[in-house]
């Protein structure tokens, strides 16, 4: 009986984010001119479609169709009304840290991945950089 209650609770918890993802949210199309890392995965330079679906963020490379979906934290809106991606560069590797848009529902902050934390443990110079939407 207790197992059924836990299963029902888990089903309800997974349905809420899915229901909220049915609301249309803006997508971002951006050309990233360099390889980068996000969620411990390395992605090539290229044209990306970025969409937020509830608590999830999806990055889809439009050229080779590599896709990464991850949990993202709400982020601040872009200050100038333009959409952009922010990266940290650590020891020559660029890590996606923020997607900023004029839309509250699609702006996100990403926590540092394990790969980024390992890179930051060595000597490094962290250089923030932005890529604007065309």
Name the average pLDDT: 78
Shape: globular
Number of structural units classed as domains: 1
Provide a count of the helices. Answer: 2
Taking the sheet with the most strands, its summary is: 5 strands, antiparallel
Oligomerization category of the chains in this entry: single chain
Structural class category: alpha+beta
Number of DSSP strand runs: 11
- The strand order across the widest sheet is 7-10-9-8-11
What is the beta-strand fraction? 35-45%
What is the element string, with H for helices and E for strands? HEEEEEEEEEEHE
Radius of gyration: 17 Å
N-to-C CA distance: 55 Å
**Proportion in helices:** 10-25%
| Low-pLDDT residue spans | 1-24
Key terms:
alpha+beta; five-stranded antiparallel sheet; 11 strands; disordered N terminus
Summarize the entry for a quick read:
With 134 residues, this protein is of the alpha+beta class. Helix content is 20%, strand content 42%.
Question: How would you portray this structure in words?
Answer:
The structure is a single chain. This protein has 134 residues and is an alpha+beta fold. The protein has one domain (24-132). The protein has helices at 2-20, 114-121, and strands at residues 27-32, 36-38, 41-43, 46-53, 56-61, 67-71, 73-74, 84-90, 93-100, 108-109, 127-132. It has a five-stranded antiparallel sheet with strand order 7-10-9-8-11. Strands 1-4-5-6 form a four-stranded antiparallel sheet. The longest helix is centred in the first third of the chain and has 19 residues, at 2-20. It is globular. Mean pLDDT is 78; it is low at 1-24. It comes from Occallatibacter riparius. This is Gel scht. Keywords: Signal.
């Amino acid at each position: 009986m207790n197992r059924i209650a836990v299963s029902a609770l888990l089903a309800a918890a997974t349905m809420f984010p899915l229901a909220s993802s049915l609301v249309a949210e803006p997508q971002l199309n951006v050309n990233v001119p360099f390889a980068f890392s996000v969620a411990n995965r390395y992605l090539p330079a290229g044209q990306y479609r970025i969409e937020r679906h509830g608590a999830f963020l999806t990055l889809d490379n439009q050229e080779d169709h590599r896709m990464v979906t991850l949990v993202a934290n709400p982020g601040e809106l872009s200050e100038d009304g333009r959409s952009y991606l922010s990266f940290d560069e650590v020891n020559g590797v660029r890590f996606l840290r923020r997607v900023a848009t004029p839309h509250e529902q699609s702006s996100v902050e990403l926590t540092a991945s394990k790969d980024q934390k390992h890179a930051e443990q060595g000597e490094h110079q962290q250089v923030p950089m932005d890529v604007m939407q065309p």
